[in-house]
Every structure is written in structure tokens, then in C-alpha cells.
UniProtKB/TrEMBL annotation:
Chain's gene name: nadC
Superkingdom classification of source: Bacteria
Entry's family note: Belongs to the NadC/ModD family.
CDD domains: QPRTase
Pathway note: Cofactor biosynthesis; NAD(+) biosynthesis; nicotinate D-ribonucleotide from quinolinate: step 1/1
Assembly and interaction partners: Hexamer formed by 3 homodimers.
NCBIfam families: nadC
EC numbers for this chain: 2.4.2.19
GO BP annotations listed: NAD+ biosynthetic process; quinolinate catabolic process
Protein name as catalogued: Probable nicotinate-nucleotide pyrophosphorylase [carboxylating]
Residue stretches making up the Quinolinate phosphoribosyl transferase N-terminal domain: 33-118
Glycosyltransferase keyword on record: yes
Length: 287
């Protein structure tokens, strides 16, 4: 069995809770797969092959394996490719054989996970390729499905992107509403500095906010919704004193031009918020 670990993510709990949701545990009449139990004999065995119908970047296979093993620990499972691999249509991703009921009960949860994560990884790879700039790093955001952040950010890494902050705890992100309460950009940053925060990302949407943010102690500037000419002006003004990040209005049509302005990062919310699921299937054969 593959050993899949992510800091802050409990795979066993995720698998258990996902299967429990599908099985309706705790609900009247719930707690079992009524279709498989009524149609499939207890000793029936299947072999199965998971494959993709489109060219994709793979992500989530070890998690799919965990779903099947949760219902049959000794199921024979072979992962045929690695997460992060680019595969052509019709590639066999996983082979498995074992108890038919266990396979059918775990199938949807396993496929949903691999389809979703591979969809993210595939979109990320497309953005990295379109950006075509090794001097600029593609970042995700906190626009993730609740409960799936660690997995979705893992998929971003499999696609060749990098992670922004994981949550509200590991960096300060001063945005317009924080500035509204504090009174101005400089005061908002000063408050974060005074609180002992080490990493302070400050969003600015005007050139005249840059110096106050830097003078107050911002460690990164997020240049929000600026067109390429304005981004170049902002980068020149910052002059390498802190890293710069372009955000807002970035898609496949705009990312190349914005990344070419000299910013260190571009962040794109749609990587996790809007990636379509990869077309992946699982076909079974009775043994």
C-alpha cells in the first residue's frame, strides 16, 4: 500500500467520513450499499481498470487506493502511474481485483476524488505552460471547497504550481476591508507588525499605496487588478525590496502578459475554484 501523507490532513478520517456520507451512516435505513447488497453475491469478485479519456495530469491515485482498502484491506491494487504524471487518453492508471461489493461501494468516492484532483492538476499545468515564464511562480488561493483545501493544494503542486498561504494562520493578508477598519494601508501593516506577525502580505490597488505599505513593514505586495503597464510601474517602484504578486483578472488570455511584467508571483483563484473534473472511468470484469 502506498504511504500518502500531507501535513494537516488525516487520510483515514477523510476516507471514513466520505464513505459514511455515501452510505448514509446515522440516517434511518442508512449504513449500507443497498444496491450492491441486493444484487451482488457476498463472495463475488471483480477485477477493474481505472483509465482516463482525455490527456490529463494525474492526481489523487493514492487516495483512491485508500478508499478501496478501507473496505477490503487485502484488495490487490497496482498504481500504474504516479501523481504528477502527464498521461495520454486511454492510459491505464490503476488495476485492482478483489471483493465486488467492496469495489462497487468505494468506486464513486474514489473516482470523484481522482477526477476532481486531476482536473485541478491539469488546469494548473495549462496555466504554467501558457505563462511560459520560469522567473514567475503560479500560486493558488484560499478559494477551495471546504474540507478539501489540503487535497486541492496538493493537486496544484502536482500540476506544477505552488501554494499561497494554507489558511488564515500562516501569514497576514491585509485586504481592503482590513484597511477600511484600520484607516489606511500603512496603519493596517503597522498593526500586524506590532502583533509580531512575520509574514505580512499587503494588497494594494493603487500606486500611491506602495510606499506606505513598504515603509510600515509589509513583506510582500499583492498588486490587485492592475493591467500590465501599471504592474510594470509598480514593480519598478518596489525595486526588489519585497516580492510582488499579481492577482485579479488573471486567466489564460492574460497570464502571459501579466507574468512578463517582472512580478515574482501570479495567483489564480480559478485553479481550485473552477477546474472541471477530469474524465476518468473505472471498468469492472467479473472473476
Amino acid at each position: 500500500m502506498s504511504q500518502f501523507q500531507l501535513d494537516g490532513f488525516d487520510l483515514d478520517t477523510f476516507v471514513r467520513d466520505t464513505l459514511a456520507e455515501d452510505l448514509g451512516e446515522g440516517l434511518p435505513g442508512g449504513g449500507h450499499d443497498v444496491t450492491s447488497e441486493s444484487v451482488i453475491p457476498t463472495d463475488a469478485r471483480f477485477s477493474g481498470v481505472m483509465d482516463n479519456r482525455d490527456a490529463i495530469i494525474v492526481a489523487g491515485l493514492p487516495i483512491a487506493e485508500a478508499f478501496f482498502r478501507a473496505l477490503e484491506p487485502d484488495m490487490e491494487i497496482e498504481l500504474l502511474v504516479d501523481d504528477g504524471d502527464a498521461v495520454e487518453p486511454g492510459t491505464d492508471l490503476m488495476r485492482l481485483s478483489g471483493n465486488a461489493r467492496a469495489m462497487l461501494t468505494a468506486e464513486r468516492s474514489a473516482l470523484n476524488t481522482v477526477q476532481h484532483l486531476s482536473g485541478i492538476a491539469t488546469m494548473v499545468r495549462e496555466y504554467v505552460r501558457t505563462m511560459g515564464n520560469p522567473d514567475c511562480t503560479l500560486l493558488d488561493t484560499r478559494k477551495t471547497i471546504p474540507g478539501l483545501r489540503h487535497l486541492e493544494k496538493y493537486a496544484v503542486r502536482m500540476g506544477g504550481g505552488s501554494n499561497h498561504r494554507m489558511g488564515l494562520w500562516d501569514a497576514a493578508m491585509i485586504k481592503d476591508n482590513h484597511v477600511l477598519v484600520a484607516g489606511n494601508v500603512g496603519e493596517a501593516v503597522r498593526r500586524a507588525v506590532a502583533a509580531g506577525v512575520q509574514e505580512i502580505i499587503c494588497e494594494v490597488d493603487r500606486i500611491d499605496q506602495i510606499e506606505p505599505a513598504l515603509n510600515a513593514g509589509a513583506t510582500r505586495l499583492l498588486l490587485d487588478n492592475m493591467e500590465p503597464d501599471r504592474l510594470r510601474e509598480a514593480v519598478a517602484l518596489v525595486a526588489g525590496r519585497v516580492p510582488t504578486e499579481a492577482s485579479g483578472g488573471i486567466n489564460l488570455d492574460t497570464i502571459k502578459a501579466k507574468a512578463a511584467t517582472g512580478v515574482n508571483y501570479v495567483s489564480v483563484g480559478r485553479l481550485t475554484q473552477s477546474a472541471p473534473a477530469a474524465d476518468i472511468g473505472l471498468d469492472f470484469t467479473p472473476l
